[in-house]
Specification:
Elements (H helix, E strand, L loop, with lengths): L1 E8 L8 E4 L15 H11 L29 E9 L11 E9 L4 E5 L2 E3 L1 H9 L15 H6 L3 H12 L2 H12 L1
Antiparallel strand pairs: 1-2, 1-3, 3-4, 4-5, 5-6
The protein binds adenosine-5'-triphosphate (ATP) and magnesium ion (MG).
Subunit structure: Homodimer.
Protein name: Chromosome partition protein Smc
Function: Required for chromosome condensation and partitioning.
Length: 180
């Protein structure tokens, strides 16, 4: 399974339809500051079901819709589609290629689709969650996060590892119990 194409239409700074073709392996997106690299990553989280506006670096969800520039009026909807190569059947669906899409209208309405058939957000989350994709399963390391890991003290760095391994909450509980 690998991500094949990501199409943004009216999403953040991508007013015109823009398609990124991804190959198996590592993909790098390079460009000047403010050119929309992080917006591409936001689009990926969004189409996979992200519901937190803050995680998407906005104040509310409508902030993902192209807000206009001096030369271009704002748009009424944002749409992102992600095509996943499913030749190995990692996604539990009878298609060798799966396209999930999400649309948000400025009036607040949302639409979701799997291979062009409209569905619920839950259907997309269910489809992805069995495959290591989907909410809380893939990992997105935000900008500045690597710096904070590299410059962390040994204790802080151990904290990151414990958090990732899921033992931090047990350590906190142990510390709390010992204080009593
Ligand atoms: P850096 O290298 O500094 O991290 P970047 O390439 O990651 O930059 P982004 O954060 O992806 O840049 O893009 C920021 C740009 O996207 C800003 O110019 C901002 O105005 C624009 N932008 C964000 N949301 C919208 C929106 N809803 N409508 C129009 N433009 C937007
Ligand atoms: Mg960025």
């Amino acid at each position: 399974m690998h991500l094949k194409t990501l199409t943004l239409r009216g999403f953040k700074s991508f007013a015109s339809a823009t398609t990124l073709h991804l190959e198996p392996g590592i993909t790098c997106v390079v460009g000047p500051n403010g050119s929309g690299k992080s917006n591409v990553v936001d689009a990926l989280s969004w189409v996979m079901g992200e519901q937190g506006a803050k995680t998407l670096r906005g104040g509310n969800m409508a902030d993902v819709i192209f807000a206009g520039t001096s030369s271009r009026p704002p748009l009424g909807r944002a749409e992102v589609s992600l095509t996943i190569d499913n030749a190995d059947g990692a996604l539990p669906i009878e298609y060798s290629e799966v396209t999930i899409s999400r649309t948000l209208f400025r009036n607040g309405g949302s639409e979701y689709a799997i291979n062009g058939s409209s569905c619920r957000l839950l259907d997309i989350q269910d489809l992805l969650s069995d495959s290591g994709l989907g909410r809380e399963m893939h990992v997105i390391v935000g900008q500045g996060r690597l710096d904070s890991v590299l410059s962390a003290s040994p204790e802080e760095r151990r904290g990151f590892i414990e958090e990732a391994a899921g033992v931090l909450k047990h350590r906190k509980r142990k510390e709390k119990a010992l204080r009593k």
